[in-house]
Design goal:
Elements lengths: L15 H21 L6 H8 L3 H8 L2 H16 L15 H10 L1 H9 L3 H24 L4 H25 L6 H16 L12
Helix pairs in contact: 1-2, 1-4, 1-6, 4-7, 5-9, 7-8
């Protein structure tokens, strides 16, 4: 079985035992990274925590970092992104929900964003949120060229990610989800034109 690209939806034809072992490994990854505050988790520890063999990690994910990034993508999909029956991503619950999610899982995300798989982690999350943002971009700006809509969605995802990452890594303990939500909503108002930096109020 070929390892999947992190963030790619689960094939529906997979054997239930395979899905159970994948779920156990991803749960173990989130737990151990959160507890230790590091991505330097030995493969043996991950396998033992999930009650599977070391070989299964390599068979299903290819390597440890791919497992860790897929665990992060799975966490985002389950808690922030609702998938329809045809695997199209629906809209996020909103900035407050995003802020609460990342604050609740700060030890995990901070380790992921500063550890060995930081680049792959950022790229995967940006890809997930870009797919969501593309729908929002089309709703907000109407008919757009395919490339423009895709690039604008990626631009928004990357900018939002930079703000969230800085908050997660360098923010004072305890994190204040309301503060991040306010920052993101304020940026959204400026980007969409419903608020301008000059007058601080709605456009007329």
């Amino acid at each position: 079985m070929q390892p999947r690209t992190p963030g790619e939806p689960e094939p529906r034809s997979q054997d239930r035992r395979v899905l159970r072992s994948r779920a156990a490994l991803m749960a173990a990854a989130v737990q151990l990274v959160s507890e230790r505050g590091s991505t330097a988790i030995p493969v043996t520890d991950l396998a033992e925590a999930a009650d599977v063999s070391r070989q299964l990690i390599y068979l299903q994910f290819g390597d440890r970092d791919t497992l860790l990034v897929e665990a992060a993508a799975d966490l985002v999909r389950r808690e922030l992104i609702a998938e329809t029956e045809d695997d199209d991503l629906e809209a996020l619950e909103g900035a407050p929900a995003m802020a609460r999610h990342f604050a609740a899982h700060r030890p995990f995300y901070r380790a992921m964003l500063t550890g060995s798989c930081a680049f792959a982690m950022t790229r995967t999350l940006n890809s997930l949120f870009s797919r969501v943002n593309e729908k929002a971009v089309r709703q907000r700006f109407g008919e757009l060229d395919e490339d423009v809509a895709r690039d604008l969605a990626a631009f928004v995802a990357g900018g939002t990610g930079a703000v969230v990452n800085d908050w997660l890594i360098g923010g004072a303990d305890p994190l204040d989800p309301e503060e991040l939500a306010h920052r993101l909503l304020r940026l959204s108002e400026v980007v969409t034109g419903s608020r301008t930096p000059a007058d601080g109020g709605p456009n007329r």
